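Why do we bother with a discrete structure alphabet at all? Because it lets us treat a fold like text: something you can write down, compare, and reason about line by line. To make this less abstract, here is a complete entry for Gfo/Idh/MocA family oxidoreductase. Read it the way you would read a sentence in a foreign language you are learning: slowly, and without expecting to understand everything at once.
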Amino acid sequence: MTKLRIGVIGVGGIATGRHIPAFLQLPTVELVAVSDMNKAQAQKVAKDFDIPYVCEQLEDMLDKIDALVICTPNKFHAPIAIQALNAGVHVLCEKPMALNTQECEAMTAAAEKSGKVLLIAYHWRFMKESRAAKQLIELGEIGEPLVIRIQSMRRRKVPGWGVFTNRDLQGGGALIDYGCHLLDLALWLVGNPKPAEVSGATFNALSRQQGLVNEWGTIDAETFEVEDHATAFIRLENGAVILLETSWAANILADEESLSISGTKGGIDVFPLRINKAANGMLMTNTVDFIPEEKSYDLLQAEHFVACCLGESTAIASPQESMHVSSVIEAIYESSTKGASVTINSN
Ligand SMILES: NC(=O)c1ccc[n+]([C@@H]2O[C@H](COP(=O)([O-])OP(=O)(O)OC[C@H]3O[C@@H](n4cnc5c(N)ncnc54)[C@H](O)[C@@H]3O)[C@@H](O)[C@H]2O)c1
């Protein structure tokens, strides 16, 4: 059996914690090469996971592989993905797709031209609650979605490691890093309507205070430059709306990740999964007590990417869908700066 040869670039936390262990479980895959601007890290990872090649240059790696997993900081997603696609290599790229819509468009164009797979690793789509919710919505349980509420809230968990608070490398803070997951999931659940208009506001007053109480390490208040809290009202082209709130730091009671959709026939809460309805003259809630889960979402995502590369499946997320997520994020930042709503002209 010919195996899909995979390389990984940027072999830090997410590559070693999620992607490499997942791909190593697949018999149809051979992990052949790693690359990292920190050569010692690349060598360590190659040794730890028994991966044959450490490549200093991306070109050297592209000769050896059929597919590339990109786990670098966000700034490098677009240039690396475009170079790989132009070389005829499939790409699985960590979220967010890129720093802005313009970069996403260039990546989408490269994917279309090459005919290769470009999948963005929005792994929340593979969670059991998400897949079950998608099924229930497609079965018509809630009717037409009207109002979608997303909360990805952390009370005091500003990442005190890596480059997460570096605007140049990441493009923003809590929204582009954390809120993006449920935004992508919400758009997918309601059938990917195009975003039309955004009014947003971002804040970083808490992280700019000296001596922030923080559960995830220490940050420098003086140099903190991204948002730790963002809110937005998002109009979709089909008339539905999204109310979004996300934070790394906020004066709230507790951390919370929730996504709920109110539709014409019923409503759905995804975490935990339940349907809210009016029926037989009563208001009732159907709670889902058990959803079978044979495999972790990391493994499902890896399997899905490989199946797409082998032509056995169609990607769960098109590049355009991931670009819509980025266009909303970009519009929230722009709206916050302008203090006015922003229109999105989605392709
Ligand atoms: N899906 C998720 O839940 C999730 C969670 C965390 C991070 N991420 C994403 O994964 C990516 C990486 O995050 P991380 O937490 O692994 O960061 P990290 O800092 O742990 O690892 C990044 C690695 O990339 C290397 N690197 C930096 N620039 C490079 C370049 N130009 N070429 C090659 N290597 C380079 C660094 O040396 C480092 O080893 C980011 O895009 C982030 O948004 C996703």
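What the structure line is telling us, in plain words: The mean pLDDT is 97. The two ends are 40 Å apart (CA to CA).
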